[in-house]
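Sorry to interrupt, but I need a hand with the structure work. Can you supply me with one protein entry, sequence and fold together? No commentary is needed, just the two lines. Leave the record below and I will have a look.
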Amino acid sequence: MKQIHFGILTLIVIAIVAYLLHEKVQALWQKPTPADSLITQEAEGQLPTTLISPHFSLPAQFSFCGEPVPMNDIDVKERFDKELLINSYMHASTILILKKAYRWFPQIEPILKEEGIPEDFKYLAVIESSLDNVVSNAGASGFWQLMRETAIELGLVVNAEVDERFHPIKSTRAACKYLKASYQKFGNWTLVAAAYNRGNGGIREAMDKQKVKSYYDLLLNEQTNRFVFRILALKEIMEKPTKYRFQIQDKDRYLPENLREVKIEVTVNNLVELALKEGITYKTLKNYNEWVLTDKLTVKDTTKWVLQLPAK
């Protein structure tokens, strides 16, 4: 008898579960899909705000280094629009760039001015490295992503102990030398920016082969095709951050710090001891001097190094 009762109870439980599952499936089957829901709400004029993407209209006129961008060209407009959309929605990356710009632009801008380079080239450093000392897969390094051989040709020291491509100030001056030499070849800053990515020879060869004189008329590899438009997009966003819904509070900005210089005129075999002597940690010393690769600094001939350390 107990077995019969148990069997009946089991059948009842199974029936109840089957009924509930049936009701659940029916409810899901009848529930409008997200697309149906969107269509219904759109028809009723009640489009949910979470699904609305803000539309950022392109500027009617735009320029790079004082050179006009042909905004009446459909291809140019769409390529510019693409990079604006990509970078305006890369929120974390773009916010970090905006924060770091408060620290580095005040240091980069005066150098560009002194060297006769248009200020817009600070945005080239932005797209090359996001204003950070990064290393590419090809070995290009620092804010300006200089290759080893190019850096040495431009007067930077690159060896086992020191790599001045990671020195933001010295590498900026080196990049200026390269940009000025490139301008002598092209006489056009937009082409100079493109050549920074493709190389002077690559841009000249493409111009001769395609018989055009403007970057905007050139058909190039995908990376260089996007390169200048990425610069334009970052310029637009960083000059008008609130238009693209970016707002950095004063307290959240990365500002220039009060630093002091420590000249190294004789070889230092142990930078850990030097750091402790200066009242800081070795980690702090290296953070402020990323161009120093090891725990020693060798002084040869007239070579003298200058370390940047936090003010006491």
